[in-house]
Amino acid sequence: MTAKISLRSVTRQFVVRPARGSKASAKEPTTLTALHSLSLDVRDGEFLTLVGPSGSGKTTLLDLLAGLSTPTSGEVLVDGRPVTGPGKDRAVVFQQYALFPWRTASANVSIGLEGKGPDGRKLNRRERAAKASEYLKLVGLAGFEDRFPHELSGGMKQRVAIARSLAYEPDVLLMDEPFAALDAQTREQLQDELLRIWRATGKTIVFITHGIDEAVYLGQRVAVLSARPGRLKEIVDVDIPDRDGEDDIRSHPAFVEQRHKVWTLLHDEVRLAQDAGHRKILPDGTAPDEAPAAAGTHESTLERSAA
Ligand SMILES: Nc1ncnc2c1ncn2[C@@H]1O[C@H](COP(=O)(O)OP(=O)(O)OP(=O)(O)O)[C@@H](O)[C@H]1O
Ligand SMILES: [Mg+2]
What sign for the dihedral angle of Cα 221, 226, 230, 233? Predict the structure, then answer.
């Protein structure tokens, strides 16, 4: 197997402020373990979906892959090389569209083309507009080049964001609940479009979602994370025979069975996370029940097994 992405025993901890009003003995900063010793390989060209309870470290994992943060221990490799920061080989699509309101759809897409291209040459304005059009067409927005974000629906805005990510010509697309804010119908439409784009471009995709249906529908494999601290609980292989010939894949017995498997795995973890709910980070950034920083991972592990 060619691993495009390799996570090797990755642990990510955050140092957080002690809770307001906590005991004098608990005044020192505390350590929160978001991910604990997680190992995972993603194949070149694979579509991997990632599910886990809220707070299980999914976004933390994506940030590590994007190079927006570094692991506390362990290794994050892309193409066998350690990730040292963001790179044009990896593009991120967030839940919020993050478009510039003062730029047209075309100008939003061409942001990624303003530097030097993959061949080291700078594209001129006309070439950039042509490329932007090509990617807007790929996401079903041909003819919308000159529209501003406020003139587009939520689904259209997310299409523009996807087109912008693709315009970088990254090998890897990292997507953090990109369709969560959309209505059910638009979401299903975009899921199909993403599958079409994935098949057409052969990108490696890591896609985070809270939707079990979405995870099974899109992923070749579904990675299930445990409640915090996030570890890899299980990887479910999605195997739906005659997928391409089916109209309503979601009703296929194989889909129903694999959906149920993911649901069961996730359900147990969500309950654990809920039981530990009072230990969650508060909005002010404090972690009332976390272990002191010096105690580190071990305490958090104990905390989880005690939950
Ligand atoms: N910069 C940070 N500083 C301190 N704690 C953080 C930071 N980023 C994340 N955390 C904590 O790490 C844990 C994992 O957070 P993360 O955002 O990765 O969860 P998630 O699985 O993406 O959750 P959700 O499904 O709600 O988006 C949480 O307890 C969160 O509070
Ligand atoms: Mg998240």
Answer: negative
Using a 10 angstrom Cβ sphere, with 0-12 exposed, 13-18 middle and 19 or more buried, the burial of residue 169 is middle
Residue with the two structure tokens 């508060």:
282
pLDDT along the chain (307 residues), means of 10: 90 84 66 94 97 93 96 96 93 84 94 74 87 90 94 90 88 93 86 90 95 95 92 92 75 92 89 66 50 41 35
| Residue 30 Cβ contacting ligand 1 at under 6 Å | no
Whose Cα sits closest to atom 28 in ligand 1? 55
Please tell me the distance between residue 60's alpha carbon and the centre of ligand 2 in angstroms: 7
Q: Is any ligand 1 atom within 6 A of the Cβ of residue 94? A: no
Q: Which residues are paired to 41 by β-bridges?
A: 6
Closest-CA residue to 71 (of 42, 32, 37): 37
C-alpha distances in Å from residue 160, one per residue of 108, 132, 305: 8, 10, 44
Handedness of CA 19, 25, 31, 32 (dihedral sign): negative
